[in-house]
C-alpha cells in the first residue's frame, strides 16, 4: 500500500440512523405517566433522584447519589470532591465527546499526544496524569481512544486519590462514565443536527418495555464534521449500544449490554512551540516558548499519509440480587477490545528548525495497537447495624486481565530530510522528499507517496490484577459520620518484544516485569450542621506502579523502570457541601493538598522519568442546580499551585567527560499541565414558557508543557451560547454557537514539541424528538 486516506463512511450510514431518529406518528407513544417524582419542599428526608435523559425542557436536578456501588453515602455526605455532569448539561452545551463534556469541569486539562503517548483522551486532574483513570460503570476502561457521549447517562468526576476505589491510579482523581441502561418505560428519543464545517449528527435512543419485568434499549449515533478553523482536519464516526434488562422490578436483575463505535479521521497536527535554546550561538534567535504565531488553519500533515481509525467493542453482563434484608450482591463481567491505527504528523520543533530556518520537520508518529480486557467484579453492599451504629458498606473482589499488542509503521525511503539524511530542515519542498515543510503556507496535498509496512518491533504487554476492598460509612449520630475504606491490590505486568532484524541490524529480545502489591486507605470525618449540609476532613492515598497504562499510554513498562516502586501519593482535604433553595442548588468548596513521591513527568526529550517529589495545593468551588424555577447554573472554579519539589540531579559535564551531578535547575518549577486558575460556568434561563437561552465560559490561565517551564500555552477564555425552543411537547429546536468570539486558544499541552489548537467558531441547529 503506497498511501492511505482518512476513510469516510457513506451517506447511507447517516441516512440509516436518521430513519431511526425521525419519529413517525403511527409508531409514537406519549407516556407522561412515567415522569420522575418531584421532591416536596417540606420533606425531612432528602429524596433520591435518578438523573435520566428525559427531563422536561432539558432541565436538570442535582444528583443525590453516585451511580457507583462504592459510594456508601449520598454525595452530600461523601467526604470527597465529586462533580456530576448530567445528561441535560451534556445536551445543552452541545457536547458530542467526553472531552467536550469535561470542559465544563474546572481542574481538568487535556494532554497532547506524543511519540510514546497515543492520540485520544489524555486527562490531567488537579495536575496529575489520569490517562488510565477512566471507568465505565465502575470498571476501568483500558485502551487509548476518543470516547463519545451518545450512550452516556452522566459523567462523574471524582477528585483526589482514587486507589481505595479503583486500585492503581493517580493522585488527581478519576472519571466514571455511567451508561444508558434499559428501563421499565416506553420512549423514543432522537435528534438530527446540521451545522457549519460540515457538521452532521443523528442520534436515536429507543426504550421498550417487554412484558411486566423486562425492557430493551437501543442507542445509535452517526456523526461527521470538520474541525472549525483547522483546514482539512475532521472525520466521521458511528456507534450502536443495545441493552436488555430482565427482572427489573424484582429482586434479581440481569442487564446485558453491548457497545460498538468506529471512527475515521484526519488527525490534527497542532502548532509547534518557539523552541528556546539554552546555550550556544543560537540563543539570540530564541522564541519566547509560546506556540509560533501562524494562521489558525496552519496544518503540516499530509492528506495522502495521515489517518486515524479506531474501533471499540464492549460487552457487559451485570447481575444484581437484593436479598431483601438490606443486602445486595452484584457481579459484573466485562469483555472489551479497543484498537487504534494511525499515522499522524507531529510538527516537531526539537531540532530548532522553526526558529532557525522557518521550517517544520514532518515527524510521522505511528501506532497500530489493540487492547483486550477481561474483568470481573463482585460486590456485597447494604446497610447493617452494630449496636447504636449504622453501617452503609460495600465490599468486594475484582479481577482483571489486560492484553495490549502494540506496533508501528516503517516508511521507505523514510521520513528524514532526503538531502541531509537527518531531521535538519534548512530548506523544504520536493528536494527534501516533502519531509520538510515551510512554517507558513505548508501544503497538506504535497505528493508524499512512500511504501508503508509494519515494523517488526512489536511489543506485547500483559497485565493482571486482583484486588479486595471494603468501604464503610459509619453513622454515629445523624450529625456525625465516618467514611473509611481500604483496598489491597496485587499487580503483575509483563512486557515482551521479540528479537527482530531491521536494515541488517538485529535487536535482541526485550523482557521486563513489574510486580507489586500495595494497600491504600481513605478516611473522612463528616459533620452535618444541618440536614442539607456537611463539613468534612478527609485523607486518602494512591499508588501508581510502573507500566500503569498497561502498555498503551505515557507510563509504559520498560527495562529501565521495571524495578521502580509505585509512585505513592497522599491527599488531605477540608471541604463543605450545601444543598440550598429547597435543595434545588448544590454548593461546594474544598481546600486540599496532594503530595507524590517518585513522581514522573514528560522530560524535555519527550521521555517519561521519575522527578522525585511533587506537591499540589489548591482549593475549588462548585455550583450545580436551580437558582429559580427559570434559572439554572452549573460550574466552578479551581486554584492550583503545583510544584516540582525535587527533580533529582543533572549531569553538567561536557560530552565525554566524567559526570558532574548537581541538583536539578528545575527544582521549584511549576508542574506541567497545571494551570493556576481554571473556571467554567454554564447557565440557562427560561425567558418564555417555550424559550430557554443559555451561555457559558471556559477559562484557564497559562499552562506549561514541560518541567523546564520554557514552553507554555497562554491562558484563554472561551464563550459559548445556546437557545432552545419547544415547538410542542414532543419536538424542540436547539441552536448552539461554540467559541462565540472565534478565540484562538490552545486546549492540549503536555508534549514539549507542540500545542493542540482549540476549534474555531461554529454553529449547529439540532431538532430533538421525545415520544
From TrEMBL:
Membrane topology classification: Multi-pass membrane protein
Location in the cell: Cell outer membrane
InterPro entries reported in the protein's UniProt record: Beta-barrel_TonB, Beta-barrel_TonB_sf, Plug_dom, Plug_dom_sf, TonB-dep_rcpt-like, TonB_sidphr_rcpt
Keyword Transmembrane in record: yes
Listed GO CC annotations: cell outer membrane
GO BP terms in the entry: siderophore transport
Keywords: Cell outer membrane, Ion transport, Iron, Iron transport, Membrane, Receptor, Signal, TonB box, Transmembrane, Transmembrane beta strand, Transport
TonB-dependent receptor-like beta-barrel domain span: 272-740
Chief localisation class: membrane
Annotated signal sequence range: 1-28
A GO term, aspect molecular function: siderophore uptake transmembrane transporter activity
TonB-dependent receptor plug domain boundaries: 75-173
SUPFAM superfamilies, sorted: Porins (SSF56935)
Family: Belongs to the TonB-dependent receptor family.
Protein name: Iron transport receptor protein
Species annotation: Pseudoduganella albidiflava
Amino acid at each position: 500500500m503506497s498511501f492511505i486516506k482518512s476513510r469516510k463512511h457513506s451517506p447511507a450510514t447517516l441516512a440509516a440512523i436518521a430513519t431511526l431518529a425521525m419519529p413517525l406518528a403511527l409508531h409514537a407513544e406519549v407516556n407522561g405517566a412515567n415522569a420522575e417524582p418531584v421532591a416536596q419542599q417540606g420533606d425531612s428526608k432528602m429524596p433520591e433522584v435518578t438523573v435520566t435523559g428525559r427531563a422536561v425542557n432539558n432541565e436538570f436536578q442535582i444528583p443525590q447519589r453516585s451511580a457507583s456501588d462504592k459510594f456508601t453515602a449520598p454525595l452530600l455526605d461523601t467526604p470527597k470532591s465529586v462533580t456530576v455532569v448530567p445528561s441535560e448539561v451534556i445536551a445543552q452545551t452541545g457536547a458530542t465527546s467526553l472531552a467536550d463534556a469535561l470542559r465544563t469541569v474546572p481542574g481538568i486539562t487535556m494532554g497532547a499526544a506524543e511519540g510514546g503517548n497515543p492520540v485520544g483522551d489524555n486527562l490531567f486532574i488537579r495536575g496529575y496524569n489520569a490517562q488510565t483513570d477512566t471507568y465505565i460503570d465502575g470498571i476501568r476502561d483500558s485502551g487509548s481512544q476518543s470516547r463519545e457521549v451518545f450512550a452516556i447517562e452522566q459523567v462523574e468526576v471524582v477528585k483526589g486519590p482514587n486507589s481505595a476505589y479503583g486500585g492503581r491510579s493517580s493522585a488527581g482523581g478519576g472519571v466514571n462514565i455511567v451508561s444508558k441502561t434499559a428501563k421499565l418505560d416506553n420512549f423514543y428519543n432522537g435528534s438530527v443536527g446540521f451545522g457549519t464545517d460540515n457538521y452532521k449528527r443523528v442520534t436515536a435512543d429507543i426504550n421498550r418495555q417487554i412484558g411486566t419485568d423486562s425492557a430493551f434499549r437501543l442507542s445509535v449515533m452517526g456523526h461527521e464534521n470538520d474541525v472549525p478553523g483547522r483546514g482539512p482536519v475532521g472525520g466521521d464516526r458511528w456507534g450502536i449500544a443495545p441493552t436488555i434488562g430482565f427482572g427489573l422490578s424484582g429482586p434479581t436483575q440481569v442487564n446485558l449490554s453491548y457497545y460498538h463505535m468506529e471512527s475515521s479521521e484526519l488527525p490534527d497536527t497542532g502548532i509547534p512551540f518557539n523552541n528556546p535554546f539554552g546555550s550556544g550561538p543560537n540563543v539570540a534567535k530564541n522564541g519566547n516558548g509560546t506556540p509560533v504565531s501562524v494562521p489558525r488553519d496552519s496544518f503540516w500533515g499530509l492528506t495522502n499519509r495521515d489517518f486515524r481509525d479506531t474501533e471499540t467493542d464492549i460487552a457487559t453482563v451485570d447481575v444484581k440480587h437484593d436479598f431483601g434484608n438490606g443486602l445486595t450482591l452484584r457481579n459484573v463481567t466485562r469483555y472489551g477490545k479497543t484498537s487504534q491505527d494511525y499515522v499522524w504528523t507531529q510538527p516537531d520543533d526539537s531540532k530548532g528548525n522553526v526558529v532557525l530556518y522557518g521550517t517544520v520537520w514532518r515527524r510521522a508518529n505511528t501506532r497500530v495497537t489493540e487492547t483486550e480486557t477481561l474483568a470481573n467484579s463482585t460486590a456485597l453492599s447494604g446497610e447493617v447495624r452494630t449496636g447504636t451504629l449504622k453501617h452503609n458498606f460495600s465490599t468486594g473482589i475484582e479481577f482483571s486481565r489486560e492484553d495490549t499488542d502494540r506496533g508501528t509503521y516503517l516508511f521507505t525511503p523514510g521520513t528524514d530530510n532526503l538531502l541531509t539524511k537527518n531531521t535538519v530542515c534548512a530548506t523544504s519542498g520536493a528536494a527534501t522528499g516533502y519531509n520538510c515543510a515551510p512554517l507558513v503556507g505548508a501544503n497538506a496535498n504535497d505528493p508524499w507517496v512512500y511504501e508503508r509496512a509494519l515494523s517488526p518491533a512489536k511489543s506485547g504487554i500483559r497485565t493482571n490484577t486482583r484486588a479486595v476492598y471494603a468501604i464503610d460509612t459509619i453513622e454515629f449520630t445523624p450529625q456525625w459520620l465516618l467514611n473509611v475504606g481500604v483496598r489491597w491490590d496485587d499487580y503483575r505486568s509483563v512486557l515482551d518484544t521479540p528479537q527482530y532484524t531491521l536494515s541488517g541490524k538485529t535487536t535482541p529480545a526485550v523482557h521486563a516485569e513489574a510486580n507489586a502489591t500495595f494497600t491504600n486507605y481513605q478516611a473522612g470525618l463528616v459533620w452535618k450542621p444541618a440536614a442539607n449540609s456537611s463539613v468534612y476532613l478527609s485523607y486518602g492515598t494512591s499508588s501508581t506502579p510502573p507500566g500503569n497504562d498497561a502498555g498503551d499510554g505515557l507510563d509504559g513498562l520498560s527495562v529501565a523502570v521495571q524495578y521502580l516502586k509505585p509512585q505513592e501519593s497522599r491527599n488531605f482535604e477540608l471541604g463543605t457541601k450545601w444543598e440550598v433553595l429547597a435543595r434545588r442548588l448544590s454548593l461546594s468548596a474544598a481546600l486540599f493538598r496532594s503530595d507524590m513521591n517518585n513522581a514522573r513527568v514528560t522530560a524535555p526529550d519527550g521521555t517519561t522519568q521519575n522527578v522525585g517529589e511533587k506537591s499540589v495545593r489548591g482549593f475549588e468551588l462548585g455550583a450545580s442546580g436551580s437558582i429559580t424555577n427559570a434559572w439554572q447554573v452549573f460550574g466552578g472554579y479551581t486554584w492550583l499551585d503545583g510544584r516540582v519539589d525535587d527533580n533529582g540531579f543533572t549531569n553538567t559535564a561536557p560530552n565525554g567527560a566524567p559526570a558532574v551531578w548537581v541538583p536539578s535547575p528545575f527544582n521549584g518549577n511549576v508542574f506541567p499541565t497545571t494551570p493556576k486558575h481554571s473556571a467554567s460556568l454554564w447557565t440557562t434561563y427560561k425567558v418564555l414558557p417555550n424559550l430557554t437561552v443559555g451561555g457559558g465560559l471556559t477559562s484557564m490561565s497559562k499552562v506549561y508543557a514541560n518541567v523546564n517551564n520554557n514552553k507554555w500555552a497562554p491562558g484563554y477564555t472561551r464563550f459559548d451560547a445556546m437557545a432552545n425552543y419547544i415547538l410542542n411537547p414532543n419536538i424542540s429546536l436547539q441552536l448552539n454557537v461554540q467559541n462565540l468570539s472565534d478565540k484562538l486558544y490552545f486546549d492540549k499541552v503536555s508534549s514539549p514539541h507542540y500545542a493542540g489548537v482549540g476549534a474555531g467558531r461554529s454553529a449547529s441547529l439540532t431538532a430533538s424528538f421525545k415520544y
